[in-house]
Amino acid sequence: MTTPQVSVVVPMYDEEPNLPELHTRLTMVLARLDTPCEIIYVDDGSTDGTPQELENLLQQSQPVCTRAVRLPYRRGKTAALSAGFAIARGSIIATTDADLQEPPEVLPLLVSRVQSGQAHLVVAWRQQRQDSLFRVLASRLFNALLRWLTGLSLHDVNCGTKAMKREVAENLEGWMVSDMHRYLPILAARMGYRVEEVPVPHVMRRRGRSRFGASRYLRAVVDLAPVSLMWWRGWGMWTVLTGLSLLLAKMHYPMGWAGLAVATAWAATALAFWIRKR
User: Fold this and answer.
1) Residue 73 forms part of a structural domain
2) Average pLDDT over residues 125-149
3) How many other C-beta atoms lie within 10 A of the C-beta of residue 135?
4) Which of 40, 90, 103, 272 is most buried as measured by Cβ atoms within 10 A of its Cβ?
5) What strand order describes the sheet that includes 92-95?
6) What is the rounded distance in angstroms from the CA atom of residue 72 to the CA atom of residue 44?
């Protein structure tokens, strides 16, 4: 059997309605590539018919090598991606979401950028977002903050469609905890890899429902604590917050104690992550 050169990892949770179309389009796209490919579906503990749908696919003859991993319970997108990375055999690893909002047809463009050596990691930049206004604004604010913090000209770091060299995925493995998947492009850049973005179309979800909720915003903020302290601006923000809070606390202002609590939690979260990472 030919060893795949491109592995496409697709994490999913309760995506039974989208799976047939996703698989059809994905296999058509990858079958046209002039290189052996494989698809790795990672079921993140789905509660609908996704596991049975995957089983049906695996029992059929496929034009592209198709594999699946089932997590026993829902562990989150980062854990699902990590499980897929662990069994991927390709020298290039791509990822995409199962909701079809980023068309699978864009994957060859991202893969070609990595194959040509233009970049070590390429992330899709969704154009004309077909999401709620609140979600779009939150994403823009989040990405603007990351651009200011890191100095990187990336506009959509948390997009699920990416392609990267295997070496990049392997070196990012230590960061694959909590919800760190959204920070992979900036972490790769911090490690010295070339990171690019490619504009891609974005379409409205036609089947199923998004699991994007308020808890994700909280996890994004918590996960930002250790990430932010990898850049001087992050340390600068922490130092200013701590110094100002100490001054206000000394003057017996309640805001000073609140600020110290935030600064302590910030540092403690970062420290806990680094201990866990080791």
Assistant:
1) yes
2) 89
3) 12
4) 40
5) 65-70, 37-43, 6-12, 92-95, 162-165, 121-127, 195-201
6) 8
